[in-house]
Design a protein that fits this description.
12 strands, six-stranded mixed sheet, homodimer, DNA-binding, elongated, Rossmann fold, 45% helix
Chain lengths: 334, 334
DNA sequence: CTGTTAGCGCCTTCAT
DNA sequence: ATGAAGGCGCTAACAG
């Protein structure tokens, strides 16, 4: 443990006032180029590290942001995190990684904590808070970017990054129909899921657009992982053995569907066509390679951070919501 | 944006001194139970959030730690991050997520920044700094846990969490030999990689332990991803078509090897036995299911954080290095 | 049990 | 171009 050097130490060493050191360190003017260089030189030699804590107290800006995700081990969010961290880094911000595990209490506690740490901004992904509570909590922050969630009415200082999951689901359905599928099911993920609702909506709309009946029995909910998909698919096929197309809530669920099919002797895509969502890394690596509705997650993250920076630095209002269109990535499963 | 409430505001409202509020908020004694409750009640109603920045300046503790990883989108590190974040959360710490992309300059800049943010501790994963530089930099931090890296001589306040990759590699080789493989190759990842070196070491030792010659031509380096593995495997098989077993630097590389084999018409495991490393999520999902040397990554993360907490809270010395033994997870590929 | 007095290390404003 | 005073919001040490 090296002894900590303060600005006063550097000032004493350089034979100038504390203020002059501050000006040199923060690259402000009102100081001659030579003294600045001399001070920087001395500060460097002494191993001086300006305290962001003290600076934060004085300026009320911390150069930190909060990133809240349900689960960092979920590749969907880890790629978003990558985008956020990278553009935050480029702009001199550090990011607090916070994980909720879809637990509302934990999400609340994390927001409290981020507030106490006085983050300059917040990127909140897939919040599970209900609308009223969410609006109330976000009002406590200076600037917020919501990923995968949008407020009913727009609020100053809050911008959303959205994925057009409705259209994505419609595209998937359209693809199934163009392939001649007769009985299309949706393994729909958790009932409460915000994006699940939108995907279900698109699924129904897509069906109706092609004058198909929407059979509620062909929509089954499940946990948003492989096991959930596996179990749900087994149940689904037990009731409706003639389902010949499955749209999955996400790729993990789709993998579960693949396993169920394998177990039931159903071939993909010959007997059952399958489309997942999110285009996680394994989608292209698994057999059969998974067709999926995908967007560039890292880009979502960097767009989110860019939007946040814009909010934070702009005096006036923030940008309008950003909507990303997923693309149907056709591989072997459909 | 809600107006910020300070302790002084709460004190005024409650008709007590600032200090009394502080005692109530921090649950210290020297205050009657009833005044405490009254103050907490008032603080809650006013929406008071104590400033961790101000507190940090006063106490010189920030309740934050730095987590430095090469790439958060790499499941190996995202699972470690999960473990770290989760046990940090349980103990009231927030974590700064920092990503180096194996760039030494970026790693240095990040360490500078974490120092300036006055983190109470650091979890540094797979550092790319050379020994001398690393020792110098870590001395600036109060407490450090090194994951997947160890210092030549132990330093006060620095503990390592290690994976016994040498033994893991030996086990893989032993398994190949027990299966009757004749010509075993190692697709070894980046030349500079610290764990790559240890795996190579174990690979050689394993071979010698079974009185096999170690042919340098059967060790090929590559980028630590699927493409690297793919390219390296193609080159390897072009030169040595009779290789019948491949140990891969990690599972991503192994996936590349699978693709190369598929392209060359080699069956796995019949023509080529394959063992990967790390047991990433897709290992069990890909076809053929990948045999791999795996440890519990989330556990590494939580052990790392626990060790850091122990260091931070203990007056005396830290625990000795923790070494985790990977287990050979036998699936279809070997 | 409660209040008062000093800082923590830096930045802002005003003077020189 | 430089310096001096005051304060950011909180806690520590000491009084009472």
């Amino acid at each position: 443990m090296v002894k900590k050097i303060r600005m006063a130490d550097v000032a004493a060493e350089a034979g100038v006032s504390l203020q002059t050191v501050s000006r040199a360190i923060n690259d402000k003017d009102g100081i001659s180029a030579e003294t600045r260089e001399r001070i920087l030189e001395i500060a460097g030699q002494m191993g001086f590290r300006p305290s962001n804590i003290a600076r934060g107290l004085a300026t009320q800006r911390t150069a930190t942001i909060g990133l809240v995700v349900p689960d960092i081990a979920n590749p969907f969010f880890s790629e978003i995190a990558r985008g956020v961290e990278d553009t935050a880094y480029e702009n001199g911000y550090r990011v607090f990684l916070c994980t909720t595990y879809e637990d509302v209490d934990r999400e609340q506690a994390l927001l409290d904590s981020l507030l106490e740490h006085q983050v300059d901004g917040l990127v909140l992904c897939s919040s599970r808070l209900d609308e009223g509570e969410l609006v109330k909590r976000l009002a406590e922050f200076d600037d917020v970017v919501l990923v995968n969630r949008k407020l009913a009415e727009s609020v100053e200082g809050i911008v959303s990054i959205l994925i057009d999951e409705q259209t994505a689901a419609m595209q998937a359905v359209a693809h199934f129909i163009s392939c001649g599928c007769q009985k299309i099911a949706f393994v729909a993920g958790p009932q409460r899921s915000y994006s699940g609702k939108r995907r279900l909506d698109g699924f129904r709309t897509g069906l109706r657009a092609h004058e198909q009946v929407v059979d509620p029995a062909l929509v089954v909910h499940c946990e948003p992982d492989q096991r959930g998909g596996y179990t749900a698919a087994l149940n689904l096929f037990a009731e409706h053995g003639d389902v010949d197309a499955v749209y999955a809530y996400n790729d993990l669920v789709a993998v579960g569907v693949i396993q169920a099919c394998r177990e039931l002797g159903k071939r993909i895509p010959e007997d059952v066509a399958l489309i997942g969502a999110d285009d996680i890394p394994l989608a292209s690596l698994i057999t059969p390679a998974l067709s999926t509705m995908g967007v560039d997650k890292e880009k979502i993250g960097s767009l989110a951070m860019q939007a946040l920076l814009a909010c934070m630095h702009a005096e006036d209002e923030c940008a309008s919501p950003v909507v990303l269109e997923p693309a149907l990535i056709l591989r072997a499963s459909a």
